Amino acid sequence: DTPRGTLRKVLENLPAALLSISGRSPTDVYAVGGDDGGGPLVLKYDGSVWRRLDSGASGALWWISVTPIDGDFYMAGEGGVILQFDPSDGQFMRHTTPDDTSTMFGIWGTASDNLWAVGRDAESQAVVWHFDGKMWTVRDVSGIVPPGVPTTLNKVFEIFKREGSGIL
Fold it and tell me: Residue 159 in 3-state DSSP?
């Protein structure tokens, strides 16, 4: 019964910070965040209550895809973690990624065989990974980001869709 445009507290005293939120409807919302020692905080809201989901991963999750990609949400975070979550059965699948030391701060894609993740590696260098539906590969960003300059890429959206444009 809260008037439109009014903010109200819905969660407090969480064991870790929430860092990203997404959803398909007011009764299907997901939030991801820090690791409280029992894995990353992954919460699902069903319209009346928030419930924690067990992803089976460790480390903070920094981002969840803004919308589902071919029906699934994708989450990215510390330790090179990329998780695929199927809302229809509540199952998580951990992807094999190029390394386990990078922190990925953003993930986006046009389809499950065209995903992009961005972040930084252990040396604080910008990282871009691409998934072709079978494997994640490292993309060269030396033409965009000067080597040796500490750089973090935080989010990725449609700009990377135009691969032939010379952006990558």
Answer: helix
Nearest alpha-carbon partner for 168 in 114, 130, 112: 130
Question: pTM for the complete prediction?
Answer: 0.88
Whole-angstrom distance, CA of residue 146 vs CA of residue 138: 16
37-94 pLDDT, tens digit each: 999 999 999 999 999 999 999 999 999 999 999 999 999 999 999 999 999 999 999 9
Strand 136-139: give its sheet, edge to edge: 103-111, 114-120, 126-131, 136-139
Spatial contact of 92 and 85, defined as CB atoms under 8 Å apart: yes
User: Among 155, 88, 158, 161, which Cα is nearest to 126's?
Assistant: 155
